[in-house]
Amino acid sequence: MKIYDLIIIGAGPAGITASVYAARKKLDFLVISLDIGGQTAWSGDIENYTGYQFISGPELTQKFEEHMRKYGIALKENEEVLGFKKTNEIFLVKTNKADYQAYSLIIASGKKSRELGVPGEKEFKNHGLTYCATCDGPLFAGKVVAVIGGGNSALDAALQLMKIAKQTYIINNTDRLTGDAVMLQKIQEAGNVTILNNHQVSAVLGDKFVRAIKIKHKDQEKELAVEGVFVEIGLIPNSGFLKDIEKNSRNEININLDNQTNIPGIFAAGDVTNVLEKQIIIAAGEGAKAALSAFRYLSQKKF
Amino acid sequence: MAQSVKVYSTSTCPWCMRVKQFLKENNIEFQNLDVSGDQLAADEMMAKTGQMGVPVLDIDGEIIIGFDKEKIKLALGL
Fold first, then answer.
1. Mean pLDDT of the A81-99 span
2. Reduced to 3 states, what is the DSSP secondary structure of residue A103?
3. pLDDT tens, A267-277?
């Protein structure tokens, strides 16, 4: 089996930037990813990526992809890495489709939406329950919907939905919402958004599609008739497939200043790591650093 | 062979953009139905698939949910 210099796992801002740097160092490498753009692809308006005063998430993703394609990079799309094994400084990477080998790895697998973990959630996914208000919101025009969560992403979803849906409920399990004051004010002024603090969702109900959710408040349970459920309760790192890598209590991969993990030859970058700030521009910069570190590692090892 | 290809999409969903880009790259003509602005198209999509996720492709009656490149290629004979 062929042995690559490097395999990059993930093609969000971190993975794509790493791939551009690796290509410019003329490394023989492969990118494996479930999708292109990661969370950037799902983002609404971006106003803090230097060079673009304003750009939408899908547009920035397209720019990233064009930049990567320019170098003719070998990309395995729609492919999921299941795990890896290290033998004699060579990594064997297993995906749902094939096996690959490399002398080094960059993990840039990002984060995904946290699930509610209540009955009905899996059954009604794409049947009225969704994790992406930007994508699926327009399908709920004139309907009654619920946003689950109390942070910025929940407020962002509510802001989009209040313009589309007839009525939006925000179901928050703490005593108040924690998002930006500006967003909160817009929501409070909207007139068609009801905030239910200290409420927990205990089930999603329906037939072919969502018809209601069960919510609990101080031991009292009741049904709320809704046709759409938008789950916005934060993100978790895509690090479950990595067994021997050191992670912090939030399951983020621990890295040092040079993006090295505890395993020599494995580097990590972006939102999957313990780097405090989760921003597109930071993930991109971390991807560049990881690629340069991997290049240095390969040179020193003379692979 | 002329095929009838319909794409049910919303303007904001990234996978919809990728599906359309893929079809364009392969010179496949298609009809784009924006289910966010067109309730009839939304109902049609939900009736065909029993679900609300986009994109959905209808290739000569064969329904494909999501950007499943392999299935799409097979259905189009690429």
1. 96
2. strand
3. 999 999 999 99
